[in-house]
Amino acid sequence: MINTIWLVLMGGGILVAAFQCLGLDYSSASGLVMNPSFEPLTTLTSGLFSSAKASVELALGLVGIMALWLGLMRIAEESGLVKIFARAVRPIMIRLFPEVPPEHPAMGAMVMNIAANMLGLGNAATPLGLKAMQELQKLNKVKDTATNAMATFMALNTSSVTFIPATIIGIRAAANASNPAEIIGPVILATGVSTTVAIIMIKFLQKLPKYKLEVPEATAIDEQGEI
Amino acid sequence: MFQGIINGVSAIAIPLLILAIVGHGWYKKVKVYEVFTEGAKEGFTVAVRIIPFLVAILVAIGAFRSSGALDLLTSLLAPLTSWIGMPGEVIPMALMRPLSGSGAMGIVSELINTYGADSMIARMAAVMEGSTETTFYILAVYFGSVGVKKTRHALPAALTADLAGIIAAVVVTQLVFG
User: Fold this and answer.
1) Residues of A in contact with B17 (CB under 8 A)
2) Which chain B residues are within 8 Å of A3, Cβ to Cβ?
3) How many CB pairs under 8 A join A and B?
4) Would you place residue A132 in the very low, low, confident or very high pLDDT band (cuts 50, 70, 90)?
């Protein structure tokens, strides 16, 4: 699916730009007029190069923040703070992630990430989420394929359980909204709907033959045991 | 008053969290400095590992947007979205939100500036901004960082949830502010 979407974005973009090069314009007075120019394609090309450059800058810009949160996370793990957090929401977590052992560090990392998301702490959420993925990958028997736990975690993450959408409130305040924070209620409702749908979909889809894990988990464990 | 509380929570949350982590570490006799640097070491490798995935996703989104394909899709969808009471001006926001965080942020700011922060259009876009996430970016980066290529049902489930979130944002905004 990701391959198709990527192809549509890339190919669709190039084809639309190429079509615009014809410069077709219709008006009742002069009928169909053609104004050919290469400008849409040259704009597209420079746009492609600048997005490629910007993505590397974005990744490198993450290095410092990643290091900060991964460092703090390590302290919280060693001191047992992560375990305390994880234990508090354990009943929910073991239902959402039955494949993950309750005491596994992945649970703690996921709880920290979801908490950061709820509070709208975007730049803390990403490093903690990547840490959680590393921990989940340790439990993965087929390293290039997502596990059920990973997919569930992704669904929770992308549907973004939010209580304080801090950034957008800030933008509204800057634009002199009469009550910048009034959107909090609607946001919590809408995010509740999307998170509920995300969990239902993920649990439903993981049972479909199309998405079933190719290597059943029991055999996978046996194979790993021999290595 | 409510606004003040929210701002306060945002301002205090991160310093308080760091203090709690470091303080609890000290209380449990963890060698905080050494352990911190040990964990921080991974920061660079993780950031570098996600580069190929970021380039792939952001370049494709850039092509789709700068070519005018996004505008074309918007005009095709307009008759459909008016059914659920979604103004045409908000469609680019709904389409951009799962693709690009900065792109969506740009659209919301533009809508707020054009129509005023208290207009239905700007409120609807703001609720969408707050209640959904940059699905493609998160999936690409998170799965990419651990080398997972077959993402199975993660994308279809996430996109369905996005659609539900966007429809919910439209309906709820109309009910609350309509």
Assistant:
1) 124
2) none
3) 357
4) very high
Please give the pLDDT value at position A7: 92
| One domain for residues B27 and B112 | no
How much is the pLDDT for A220? 43
Q: How far apart are CA B140 and CA A58, in angstroms?
A: 14
Residue B68 per-residue DSSP state: T
Residue B102 and residue B170 in one domain: yes
Most confident of the following: A27-41, A52-66, B149-163 = B149-163
Please answer yes or no on whether A146 and B41 come within 8 Å at the CB atom.
no
> From residue A221, how far is each of A102, A206, A209, B149 by CA, in Å?
19, 19, 21, 21
Q: Are residues B20 and B80 in the same domain?
A: no
More confident site: B45 or B4: B45
Average pLDDT over residues A112-131: 82
pLDDT of residue A222 exceeding 70: no
Contact B68 A40 (CB under 8 A): yes
CB pair distance less than 8 Å for B132 and A191: yes
Phi, psi of A114, deg, nearest 5: -65, -40
Give the C-alpha separation, A48 to A45, whole Å: 5
| Whether A78 contacts chain B with CB within 8 A | yes
Residue B83 and residue B7 in one domain: no
Q: Which of B18, B130, B133 sits opposite A187 (nearest CB)?
A: B130
Q: A226 CA to chain B: closest CA distance, Å?
A: 23
State whether B109 and B30 are in the same domain: no
Please tell me whether residues B164 and B90 are part of one structural domain: yes
Domain count, chain B: 2
Q: Are residues B55 and B11 in the same domain?
A: no
The stretch B159-172 carries a mean pLDDT of 93
Predicted confidence at residue A227, as pLDDT, reads 37
Residues 132-161, chain A, touching B (beta carbon < 8 A): 133-134, 136-137, 140, 143-146, 150-151, 154-155, 157-160
Task: Based on the fold, state whether residues B60 and B114 are members of the same structural domain.
Answer: yes
Domain ranges, residue B30: 1-40
Over residues A8-21, the mean pLDDT reads 91
Task: Find, among A192, A42, A166, the residue nearest to B67 by Cα.
Answer: A42
Alpha helix segments (H runs only) across chain B: 2-27, 32-40, 42-49, 51-66, 69-81, 91-96, 101-115, 120-131, 135-146, 154-177
